[in-house]
Structures are given as C-alpha cells and as structure tokens.
Amino acid sequence: MSGDLSELYQQVILDHNKRPRNRGKLPTANRIAHGDNPTCGDQCSVYLRLEPPATPHQPEQISAITFDGSGCAISQASASLMTTLAKGKTAAEFESMFKNFHEIVTTGQAPEEISDLAAFAGVHTFPARIKCATLGWHAALNALKSAATSTLSESLTR
Amino acid sequence: MSGDLSELYQQVILDHNKRPRNRGKLPTANRIAHGDNPTCGDQCSVYLRLEPPATPHQPEQISAITFDGSGCAISQASASLMTTLAKGKTAAEFESMFKNFHEIVTTGQAPEEISDLAAFAGVHTFPARIKCATLGWHAALNALKSAATSTLSESLTR
Amino acid sequence: MSPWKNIRADFPILHQQVHGKPLIYLDNAATAQKPRAVIDALVHFYERDNSNVHRGLHALSMRSTDAYETARARLARFINAAATEIIFTRGTTEGINLLAHSLGAKLRPGDVILTTEMEHHSNLVPWQQVARATGATIRYLPVVGADAEGGLDLTQLDQLLTPAVKIFTCTHISNTLGVINPVEELCRRARAVGAISVIDAAQSIGHGPLDVQAIGADFVVFSGHKMCGPTGIGVLYGRREQLESLDPDETGGGMVANVTYESARWKPAPERFEAGTPNIAGAIALGRACDYLDALDRAEIAKHDQSLTGFAYDQLAKIPGIRLLGPTGARSGMVSFAFSDVHAHDIVTFADEDGLALRGGHHCNQPLMRKLGLTGTTRASFYIYNTEAEIEVLVTSLRRILAFFGAG
Amino acid sequence: MSPWKNIRADFPILHQQVHGKPLIYLDNAATAQKPRAVIDALVHFYERDNSNVHRGLHALSMRSTDAYETARARLARFINAAATEIIFTRGTTEGINLLAHSLGAKLRPGDVILTTEMEHHSNLVPWQQVARATGATIRYLPVVGADAEGGLDLTQLDQLLTPAVKIFTCTHISNTLGVINPVEELCRRARAVGAISVIDAAQSIGHGPLDVQAIGADFVVFSGHKMCGPTGIGVLYGRREQLESLDPDETGGGMVANVTYESARWKPAPERFEAGTPNIAGAIALGRACDYLDALDRAEIAKHDQSLTGFAYDQLAKIPGIRLLGPTGARSGMVSFAFSDVHAHDIVTFADEDGLALRGGHHCNQPLMRKLGLTGTTRASFYIYNTEAEIEVLVTSLRRILAFFGAG
Ligand SMILES: Cc1ncc(COP(=O)(O)O)c(C=O)c1O
Ligand SMILES: Cc1ncc(COP(=O)(O)O)c(C=O)c1O
User: Fold this and answer.
1) Rounded mean pLDDT of chain D?
2) ipTM entry
3) Is the pTM of this model over 0.90?
4) In terms of C-beta density within 10 A (0-12 exposed, 13-18 middle, 19 or more buried), how is residue D288 classed?
5) Are D257 and A128 within 8 A, CB to CB?
6) pLDDT mean over A115-134
7) How far is the CA of D352 from the centre of ligand 1 (A)?
8) What spacing in Å lies between the alpha carbon of D93 and ligand 2's midpoint?
9) With an 8 Å Cβ cutoff, are D31 and C19 in contact?
10) What CATH code would you report for B3-151?
C-alpha cells in the first residue's frame, strides 16, 4: 500500500468506519438536514438538538447529534467523528471547527492542534474525495441553518 | 484558367447566362413550380403550359415554358437551355431528356448525341455545382407533376 | 496478420503507468479508448481539410463536406441504415432529448411511455420531463430477482404494453447489469400495439454487430466515445418514415430551406435535425472508428468481450461475500458487484493504486440501485484490448482490499 | 520573440497548394484554422488522459475531470466571468436554442422578443419558433441604408424597446456586414426596460478582447471553431442570477442530483445544463485556443484584423461596379460584396482556381439579403494569419473573373 493511501485510510478513519458513533435517527432532534453527493449517490442525514444551555443568556448549543446514511469509509468516518466533536458546541463554534477541518482536507495542514481531525489530512492528495470527507459536515451546517422543526417524529409525519 | 474551369464555363453556358432565353413569367401557364437550392439561396420558378396537341388522342405537350429567378451562371444557363429544349415535349419525353442531362452532369458522359446539353459535361468535376445545373430542371419536373392550376394570373391571386 | 494480434499497440494511452503500475483500463462502459487511426483522423482533418461544411464551394469546404457526408454514409453502413437516416448528435443523451422533445410534443394525457427499470438516467429523466409536460404517464417494465439476475420481466409485457403506449424505449444493454435485452422481440411487440420504439444502444454499439433493420426499432441512439470514436459526437438513427414526420428540436443555420423575417421552412432529414456547425472532425473520426471496429470483425469483438466477461464473472464469483449483479449467462462486457462491508469508492481508490481504472457509484442508475437496496456498485467493464491477465490483477487487488478492510 | 513573427508556421493547414496555387484561406467567418497547439491538445488528451469526467475516482478520470474543469475556468477568464457561469455547448446555435427553449418557456402572448434585421439564421429561427409556440411577438431593429452601411437604426430603439420586450437579442458582429454593434449600449437599454439580453458573439469572440461584464449582457453565446478551437464545442455564458432560475433544456446523466422512478432534482449550474458526456477533448482544446489567442494579445488581434479589413475594403472599393456591404468605417474582419452581372458562386469557383477560399451565398442571412435586394454576396473574411499580399491576390483574381464574364 502506497504512502498516500495509508495516509488516507488512517487507523482512526478505519475505526470510525467500522464502528460509527452516534449513528441512527435522533428522536428528540429539532434540526434535521440531508446532504447528498450527486457524483456518487452517497447520502447523509444529520439529526441534532439545539437548545439553550443551563447558564442563561448564552447561545444555543448542540445537546445531541446523530447521523444516518450510506457512503464510503471516508464519508462515514468523517460524519461519525464529526458527531463526537459537535456535542456541546454552539453553531458558531461548529462553523469554526468546520473551517479548520476544511483546511485540513484541502491543504493537508492542520492550522492548530485539533486532535482526531488531523487524521483526515491524507484526503488532500485525493481531491475527488474531499466531497466525501465533508458530506456529513455540510449536512450538519445545513441543519444548524435550517428552521427549527418540531421533534423528528413530528417532522417525519408532516 | 485551368482546363476544368474552361470545361465548366463553356461558351454555350456563358451565352445563355448573358442572354437567357424564355425568361420571365408566362401569363398563360397552367403549371407552375418553384425550386430552391437551400445551400446557396438560388431560386428558380418555372411556368409552363401543358396542353393536348393538335392531333387527337396524343399525350399533352409543353406548348410554352419560361423560367424566372436568380442564380449563378451555371443555374441560369441550364434553366435557359432547358426551356429551349422543353417546348413541344411530353412529360415523359422531358423526363427522359432530364435523365440524359443528369447523366451528363454527374458523369461527364453524354449517353447519346444530345446537342447543347453536352456543354454541361464540365459540371461533373465540380460536384458542388450539380445542384446548380439541375435547379431549373427540378422545378420543371415539379411543375409537370403538379396539379393543373388555372393560368398564372389566377394562381397568383388565389 | 490478424488485426487482433497487436491490438494493444494501436492504443497509445494503454502504454503508461499509474502509480508505478501498468495502467489496466477497466472503465470502458464509461468511455472507450481511441486507436491511433482515430486520433490521426482528427489530426489529418485539422491539418489538411478543415473548413465549414455544406455552405462552401472552395476546395477545403468541398473536401470537408465530402468527408463529413462520407462519414454519415459510413455510419449508415455500420448499422445497416441509409445515409439520410443518420443524424449526428453530441451523443446518446442529446439523441434521446431530441426524441423526447419532438416525439413528446405529440403526446396527450392518457398516453403512456413505457420504459424499463434498468434505464440510464439519460433514457429516463427526459421521458419523465415529457410525461410531466404533456400529462402522459410513464410506466416501467420491472427487472426480476434480488440481484436483477432475471433481466427484464417479459411476463409483464402483455399487461404493460397496451395500445395506450405511444412510445416504448429500452436500453439494448444495461450499463450496470450487463444484461443484453431482447430488443428485437420488444420492438416487434411495441410495433404491434402501434408504439414508436426507441433503443438506447450506448452500451451495445461498440461490442458487436448491430443491425437496425433486424432490431426493427424506429429510433436507435448511441455515442461515438463508447465505440473508439471521439467525445462530442454520436448518432441518432431514425427510420425514414419516422424522420419525415418529425419536427426539429433545434433550429438555425444549415437546417433551413428558406427563412423570412416571419417564418422558416426546413430542409429534409438528416439536415433538418442538424442546426448549426456540426462536430465535423468528430463525425469524420467516428467514421474511422467504424473502419477500425469492422476490421476487427464485430462478431469477433462480441466473442472476445463476452468470453472475457465470463472469465471475470467466474473469477469474481469465488470472492467470499461478493454480490454480483445481473444474469450469470449471456452478458455483455461488464461485471458489477458489491460487498456489504466495503464501499465502492474505497475499492476504486485502492484499486487505482494497483493501476486499475474501475468505476464505483450508481452508474447513472439511481432508481435501480435503490430498488436493489444498494447505493452503488463497483463496475469493471471490458473492451477489445483487455486481457485475462488484467482480470487476474483485478481479482488479486480486490482480495487485498477486502483483507485490508477486514472483510472478505 | 513576438508570437506574431512566425504565426503562419503555427498553422499546418496553411502550407498546402490548391490547384497548384498556395492556399489563401479567406473563409474565416465560417470557421477558423487551428494552430498546432490546439491539435496537440486533442492528441495529448486521447493519448494520455482520456476518460469520462465527473463520475470517476481513478487516475485517468481525475485527470480528465481536472483538465475539463480547468478548461472551464480558462474560458471564464477569457471573457471575465466565473467558472460556474460557463456552460459548454456544441456551439453558438445550440446555446441559442437552449436559451430560446428555456427562457422562451416563460413568455406569454403580448410579450415581445426584440432582435435585429441582421441576425444569423441561428439567432433568428429559434426565436421565431418560440414566438410561435408562446404567442409572443418578434420585432426587428432595422438596418440603415441601401447597403446597410448605417448599421442598426438606434433611433428606433425608443419606440421598439418597450417594457413588453422580455428578451433582447443581437449579434455582436454581423457575419455578413462586418459591422460591430454597440452591444454595451444595447444591453444597458434592454436592462432598463427589464428585458433579458442575449448576445451572439460568434463573430467577435476570436477577433478581440471580450468582457461580458463590460458588455453587461445576461447571456453570451459563441462557438469554439471560430476562435481556433475544434468543431463541436462552444460556450454559453450566463450571469449567475440568470442561470440559477433557468430550467435545463436537456436532461440525463451528469446533471441530476437525485433521480427516482417518479422524479428528478437538478444539480446547480453549470452541471445542470450539461446533460450526458460532454465534448471533453473539445473543451480542453478550446482552453488551449484561449492560451494561444491571449499569447498573441487580443487587442493586437483586433488591430491586425481591422487594419487588414480596412486595406481589403480600400482595394476592393476600386473595382468598378462592386457593391460593398456594411459600414466604411470600423468593421471587423470581413468584407462582403456583390456585382450585378456576376453571381457569387461563379466568383467563388473561379477564385478557388487561384487558391482562394471565399464564401458565396446568403451566409445564413436570407431575410437581410432579401431586404437589400440581393440573393447573395461574396465574402472574404480575415484572421490572424492573413496578409496584405493575400488580399492583393484576391483583388487581382476578382478583376480577372470580372473580365472573363465581360463585367467590370
Ligand atoms: C453571427 C453568427 N451567429 C451564429 C453562428 C452559428 O454558429 P455555429 O454554426 O457555430 O453554431 C454564426 C456562424 O456561422 C455566426 O456567424
Ligand atoms: C445505457 C446508456 N445510455 C446512455 C448513456 C449516456 O451516453 P452519453 O453520456 O454519451 O450521452 C450511457 C453512457 O453513460 C449509457 O451507458
């Protein structure tokens, strides 16, 4: 296996792919968005609950988040990792984390110490896979931007 | 001037081009057809009168024929010459004359002694000009095949 | 000497390395590679004859018109049609859109367009659009079996092919399943109920003899790039009587007999359907591709591709956990497969490291994928220059990939 | 060294004899010749990178996708647009048809399409068809003068450009008159009444700088083959806001985001408008043509072409009995002329014997010809590789032809 390829398929990625975290629908979700990669048909739905924190006068935070869908190891692992990091973040914090992530997958450079996200640095030598790596993130961004829905079950029966 | 070109622009052709015979509308025409060469926009209308000959039980003959339109030397000369040869011919005779003419312009070979028509033998080395040479003939053939109209003036005001 | 003997030497692109490995091009269903003769035809045209067609009387223009019309006649001969029945298009997709727009304009509510569940998006979405615009209904002849191994369900034809069907359209060979559909029978049945038949020959044109008279279709469409021709050129064949009553979809220079500020009259077919400057060089080079394939003998091409595919199928079937789509028997030059644990994209990326060019995804067959419970497959598709040795590399590579992902 | 120095050496086709005379190619308004670099780009693609675009993850597919999208960005830069505003088409005619169909679908009876009396059939007939289908009215901005020497009659704009005008379309440079229309002003005026503006840049794109922002058009269409690119490729530029609300004309593979058996959703522009496999090699080679023309400096090209045309105009004007069309002043690279006694076809056939490639006929401008009382003209059109010496041969040849026919 070439260096590029083992860079792409890091252990962290293989692990998240095999045992995705926070996978499935979130019954208490009040923000939902769906992303697809028309090039390959990969799909990812993100369900999250945005709510005011315990402390008053603070912006809303992601109190719970799950994902669902199908895709390659890169897209599945990236979505899984994303859910583990999103919890507790405000929308602004999430966006700034995505900016870092985007920089990593497009340049291979991690702007600051960002833990597990750096595992995706290998993506930058496979430009066609950037869309895979960001699929779940885009769904989450769209969910954060979407209008508040009622909970998932209600939104599904509408 | 190359041999091919002087073959194409024979004296007969130049003469008919300069002084076209039977040019104009024919007030007594009872068959009219219009031909165009969409490639170049050349147009030719043929007006003819088909009527029973003096002798009874004989097929109708072209008793008068004129042409009108615009086009290159080849198309004008060919239409002009065609009108001089068509007079007195039955439809069948005209068709057989056209077959000879078509053979001349496509092969350069005159199948039998056919007088002035042989002047168009040079066309066969200029395949793009065959349509020019046959424009008036096609209009005449269409006129012969068309339904009998009343005379020209009536047909124009219909 | 047999033109097959040194066939790989005819294709310059094959002689390169990818990631340090010899290129093994198994993405022929997406596009085929070009022999030197076809590339040379393009170069020769631009170096000697380039000029616009139809409207010129100077030497270059006569030469290029001549070469373009000779190519039309060559394509006609290739599929046993008349030159006036050959319309040059950009490719299959444009041909189908032309038909969907022009035939579709005549549909009314209650009319049915019958197609199949295995169509490429290009032979599906244009008809959906027409159905929506006219109020016609689109119906699907289903595929049989969990892996579509039964091909089309012909037992449903009686029920689906009613006199309400005005247009029947179907792919000759599925670009995902590799199944060869019985188009002769289907066109005959369609004609029996008065439906116009449209055959998508994108996947069949390069892989064997194709005779539009034998098929009995009213229209047949295909792309040049899948039969060793250049990109940007394809053919719409239309039976003469059909073309005569068909309105053009695009209008403009070259297809008009007469134009005034008020109105326009069309030329007859095929010019009526070729508005504007065509892909002249592309058409000429496509004619040269016909020569190339005929020199190989198209029956031999079919034999080669099918035997290679049989070999591939048998080798792949031995891989544990593989799910092979389409029929086991007679199939054309491709095999589509899936694993439950490893996604097609990961396979393609890994295989690329071994010099293998595969395709992974929905292959423009999303609805079929969904019906089969898949989001995509990996597809290996073969052509005249592929070998059994290349397939062995594929199988070895796949086993290694599965091992890496802890599958298989 | 200036790239102009040895420019003729860049064009292989120019180094040949026709009827024993050096080829003098003066049919550039019909199609331009191709420099070696453009031909090489085609060869390189087919020898190294050929693969289908967008849908592949293997090395060749990534390379060809990359080259194709780089070409899109190159074309964008060529006309000062964004890459997402560039749609690859077969050529001008297809671009206009796409617009006529998609914009036209929104027209209603009472709406007006305003165009001009000097349009090419390709920018006339599609709009006539749309007007007929929707009940909209088509109106014409007239040309001024017996020989159209006054260009467009701008004094009629006030009266014709009313709020009922939904679409204004106009050629940038007439392919018969050579007149350069004030498209900036026309687009500004059109926008002021809320009309969408469409500019046919077929004759201008290769002959000087072209900045879609400066022009201010909503849509601009052109063909690659008239700017040193291959046949079968062209561009539709659409302002982003316009493209976003525009429906596709053709549908199929590559332009869909999601497809079910019931319906389909589109990708955003530009993909939404590129159904099926595009002319990949053509687009890439067209990008190379942009490089070639920019290396010459497009302002220099305009200077060269216009000065050559001025020279030709002056020389031709000395021929007794010649009728020269269009303005005497600023004109682009062509001169169109007629004689009362000698037909254009005869002139072209004779000139061909002297190695001259001229065009005779209506130049897809039948209604304008009829208005000017002509059935056709002879047109000499110039490009970067033409010289004054070639024009002298033209003039000598014309004098001889006139003498032969006893005219002039
Ligand atoms: C002004 C103008 N518009 C449109 C066209 C049509 O271009 P194409 O034939 O490349 O589609 C031409 C070229 O013939 C032209 O000169
Ligand atoms: C069965 C089938 N139909 C249609 C198409 C579309 O062909 P093109 O993209 O050349 O228009 C393809 C190729 O992708 C195909 O395989």
Assistant:
1) 96
2) 0.94
3) yes
4) buried
5) no
6) 90
7) 23
8) 23
9) no
10) 3.90.1010.10
